[in-house]
Design a protein that fits this description.
Layout (H helix, E strand, L loop, with lengths): L1 E7 L2 E8 L2 E8 L4 E4 L7 E3 L9 E8 L2 E9 L4 E6 L10 E9 L5 E9 L8 E7 L28 E7 L13 H4 L9
Length: 193
């Protein structure tokens, strides 16, 4: 799903939602593909705004293992560098984010993001959550897990991991170009007790 389009310098920059994460592609002004913009990881990016003649733009990026940061993107060299990033009180290099897929009961390919510490090498207790569906679009960000129905943050014993299933809503795709039939056919949310 196309999320953003911007003309920066002599390139058209298009940002897509692909498998519940951002993908960014470049095109020449004649429509010829010109490669991808490499992002810092699996996550959400946006705000590639500019004007003809600009040789740079700025964008934001966030993920489960990266706080929202601003990057400078050089159009000519197709490179990005951190322009501004918050300081965090944890070693983010110890966190790994992987994307995997699971087939739902109706065969829909559901993206699942697994967040774990780098020292986890085998089976570990895992907290599974899900976001999206019912027309709600979820984007990546650092979050502290919370107990369901509570505002209390969870401190999980180590080694642990977390998994987040991304249930696509209308207009989003799960697994490339195949619409998520389960979420997109529900016209209104139902309450479950």
């Amino acid at each position: 799903m196309l999320r953003l389009a911007g003309l920066v310098g002599d390139r058209l920059i298009l940002s897509y939602m692909v498998d519940a994460k951002t993908g960014v592609e470049r095109f020449k002004l004649d429509g010829t593909p010109d490669g991808a913009v490499e992002l810092p990881g699996i996550g959400s990016a946006g705000a590639f705004h500019g004007r003809p003649g600009d040789d740079e733009t700025f964008f934001v990026f966030t993920s489960q293992d990266a706080p929202t940061s601003i990057y400078r993107y050089d159009v000519q060299t197709n490179t990005s560098t951190v322009w501004a990033a918050p300081e965090v009180a944890t070693d983010l290099d110890r966190i790994i984010v992987e994307q995997r897929f699971h087939a739902s009961r109706d065969g829909t390919r559901v993206p699942v993001f697994v967040v774990l510490r780098s020292d986890v090498t085998g089976p570990a207790p895992t907290m599974l959550t899900a976001n999206g569906g019912f027309g709600f679009r979820w984007f990546h960000s650092i979050r502290r897990p919370r107990w369901p129905g509570s505002n209390r943050a969870v401190s999980m014993p180590s080694p642990t991991s977390g998994a987040m299933a991304s249930m696509a809503g209308p207009g989003m795709t799960a697994g490339g170009d195949t619409p998520n039939r389960t979420a997109s056919t529900i016209s209104s949310p139902r309450r479950s007790f």
